[in-house]
Amino acid sequence: MDFSGHISTRQMAAVLFLSRIISLFTFMLPSASYIPPGDRVITAFAVMLIEFIYAAILITTLKLNNGRSIIEASGEYSHILSGIIAVLYIFAFLWAAGIGTARFELFISTVMFPNSELTLMIVILIAACVIASLKGIEAIGRASAVLLFVMGLSIAFILFSVAKEFEYYNLRPVAAEGIGPVTGFAFYVSTRAAELLSLNVSAPLIKGNVKKMIFLWIPVFSAVCTLILIFLTGVTGEYGDDQIFPLYTLTVIARFGIFERLDDILTGLWVLCIFIQVAYLMYLSILCMNQGFGRVKKFPCALICASGIFAVYLYSSQTVTKFSDIVSNRITDVIFIALMIVIPVAVTLIKKIKLKTRTKI
Length: 361
Fold this sequence. Notes:
The protein is mainly α and 361 residues long. The protein is built from 14 helices and two strands. The chain has a two-stranded parallel sheet with strand order 1-2. Helix 5 crosses helix 11 (262-293). The protein starts with 6 loop residues before the first strand and ends with a helix.
């Protein structure tokens, strides 16, 4: 692995898009059962507004820290602090990768191969991610750019093929219970997405205008999500409310030309999406080890990360109910806000205070 590798803004946008979209595709209804279906349509817009706040803080702290990661910036005045922060981000990335893997396994074992033992498949997936993470961020970025093009076509095919089934009356009154459920669920979604959080570590690896990339990626992804959710609600209606994985139901309905079962084809693409997500987060975890504890041996660190991801997967994938309970735990909100806002702002402020102190001396 080459820690000095770089990735273009387009490639990073592709990585972030694929990493996030797989969470939408394997979205579980029980974890969102407290928000009316009509309100889910505008949730993506509400999430966008919240993430603009996160992005503004991210861009500001990156600029004040001269484009360095938050771990590198804290290491300027305390190696112990940088090590602690590195451990916190490693935990967050491995947790996100493990939860993503568990969500995908539950999807496969629930709707594709019910009651099947898929542990071996997950082991193979994580092993492949170890190899990909050792190849470096450039390899992950190039693969993501190609996959994004194919994924874009597949989404267009789905929406086009189900358009004739769309019924406007399925779009129930929006915000009938006020904006409380929408804002609450939007915050819930935003604190369980690791993409913007990951840029606190990976931003220095990006070649190009990071600010422009972030402020374009957020609305573009939100627009895609909104469009998908509109079709999901308009096509499936009340039937979709009874499905654990409603977006999969949408792909089952889809037909396009000679392809009578788009869901089988798309599931293969979703496997590649979870591969990108886990490989990216594993790479960042190893990068955190390198930044927080000096130069490390890559392969042993990759194995440690793989073990951590597998442990989270085993812990959270026993049943859909347990998974939903774990993911819905509000401690996740606290950890996310600490890593996304509190720690970056605190490190930046400490740096400014120390610089002023030195200047006066």
